[in-house]
Amino acid sequence: MKGIRWVSKGTERSSLKVPDGGNQETIIVIDNIKTKKKLVDSKEGKYQFEVQLEVKASLGNKVNDQTYNQLLRETKENLSKEIKDLFQLGVEEGIDFLDLGHILYRNDFKSWEKDKENYLAKSEVEVRADVTIQHASAFKNKRFEELKERGKTD
């Protein structure tokens, strides 16, 4: 249920553990979370939704030698995975955690009316995460853009 924090309106700040492939994890502190959900396609009784996630982040701690781009990629992957796992749990339990029924109702009423009891089972979710890591541990007063210019992030 970790993914619920990224789609709930009450979440202002949370942390995410990003594994490095070994046994260590970098902690990313995420705030300024903006989430948009939309119906992309509703043809032939199948529903395609998109969850767009835009977050600002900072490094809580960095315990390995991952580059900025690696951290960015792995943070996006972890955010996407948590939301997709939440969606899948909802399908299995019959709970619409992402409020997709409301989106279907507002955008394609005829389809919602026809499938209002089982639209979740006919749905797929694509997650697009836009992450900006603004600063890091010892470099809290320096923006990542400045560090990138000096070659300290790759």
The backbone outline, from C-alpha atoms, is: elongated
In the sheet with the most strands, the strands line up as 1-2-3-4
Low-pLDDT runs: none
* Main sheet specs: 4 strands, mixed
Distance between the ends: 33 Å
Describe the structure.
This protein has 154 residues and is an alpha+beta fold. It has one domain: Nutrient germinant receptor protein C, domain 3 (GMP Synthetase, Chain A, domain 3), CATH 3.30.300.210. It contains five helices and four strands. Helix 3 crosses helix 4. The two termini are 33 Å apart.
In summary, what is this structure?
The chain has helices at residues 4-7, 68-93, 100-107, 109-115, 144-149; strands at 13-19, 25-41, 47-61, 123-136. The chain is α+β, with helices and mostly antiparallel strands. It has one domain (4-148): 2-Layer Sandwich (GMP Synthetase, Chain A, domain 3).
Describe how the helices and strands are arranged.
Layout: H1 4-7, E1 13-19, E2 25-41, E3 47-61, H2 68-93, H3 100-107, H4 109-115, E4 123-136, H5 144-149
Parallel strand pairs: 3-4
Antiparallel strand pairs: 1-2, 2-3
